Predict the structure.
Amino acid sequence: MPDAHRITLEVLRFQPEGPEAPYLQSFEIPYTDDMSVLQGLQYVKDAVDGSLTFRWSCRMAICGSCGMMIGGVPRLACRTFLRDLAPGPVRIEALEHFPIARDLVVDMEDFVEKLPKIRPWIVPAEPRTMEEGEHRQSPAQLARFESLSHCINCLLCYAACPQYGLDSRFLGPGLSALLLRYDEDSRDAGREARMTVARSEEGVFGCTAVGYCTEVCPKHVDPANAVNRAKGEAAVGWLLSLAKRGE
Amino acid sequence: MSAPRTYTRDMAGWWRRGPFAGYLAREITCLAVGAYGLLLLTGVLRLADGVDAFARWLGVMRSTPALVLQAVLLAGLAWHAITWFLILPRTIPPVIVAGRRVPSWAIQAAGIGVALAGAIAVVVAGSKALAP
Amino acid sequence: MKPSREPPYWLLFGAGGMLAALVGPGLAWLIAFGPPLDSARVHAFARHPLGKAFLFAVVALFLWHAAHRLYHTIHDFGWKRGEAEWLLCYGVAAMASAAAALALVAIGF
């Protein structure tokens, strides 16, 4: 590697068939100024230790696969650069608040299982035929949910959220943002069903507005805002239900 | 075939790590708000005992130990006010003015400005109305 | 899915937090470090309906705000919370509100 510097990666390793607890392993590698942490891990896997296990795909911060703790902060490995972490060492661990499956791979079954519960699809008010044409949506209507639609399901916000870490029954930031993305879409009429999830005991009231989820989100979704807006909607819904009961 | 074992990390001491010390400092201000509410309650109870009883309460409030307590609570209340408006951009829907979204720093600055104005208003109005 | 019982407490927490942010520091300064207050004038303030409303609001809402935040913060520290903790936190707020209400009525008009 021409013009190479050297840096040490301290990786938290874990194998189900291996030692009881995770352990740190150091890899001293060459790197160039254009290399990401992901490329550093790929160098280790290719040239040093083929057993090192981690998820990755697009290398360009759109697939959401390579989320991990880098220097104690939830980050995408493909978008974190070794030159910014020099002289190191760079501590790399699997995403917090998820069980470790192997090395840097977490068990995300909890998230996957919760996903359909929030109905992440357009629920039309009534069935629509092709002859009726497309939905019309103004720029202002789009603006209400567009940033919420940028979520790449990278789970960095879950790694950031201490409430999810303390109780994984909590719906969490990403799913709350996705829930609001559909509620706020003018084409959708599924608010009531999603509200049942949002206002449940495992719903949005588990949030205490730490705000770290929004800080780590690579797509500027602002999940903290989504969760707290959902709290407001649930509270208004509760007030209206009181009024209805009074009638 | 059973699923391979996974490893679940411990959450103990999480609030000592990373950015969470600031969150903790904010949440702890609730003790100042609650304590001050209880302090005001003692004043309200004294008021029910009559003007003279309340005059004695006001005197106690100006004793040195009470002043120290109130200074601590004042610091806590001020930190509550500041951190309340620092988190406000995360807790309210987007504010659109003249077609543009108002940025977070502007909401925070406006909020803290309103808090400052509120504090001054209470002191000025309270002094005018309630002090000779 | 069981609905959370949080909404009313969260609303009280929000109202209390906003009120505390706007008038808390001012009140604390006024009573401790401002010009000495005239007890007769304060008593007259407490006899006025608006004065009663203000005094009730600051006692009750400050306590409901603190109760909600404290209940959640002890959970953050890893305290295994149960019904006892819930009743203690919100119970104190409820009792303080009741005591304030009774006292403000007793002050008369």
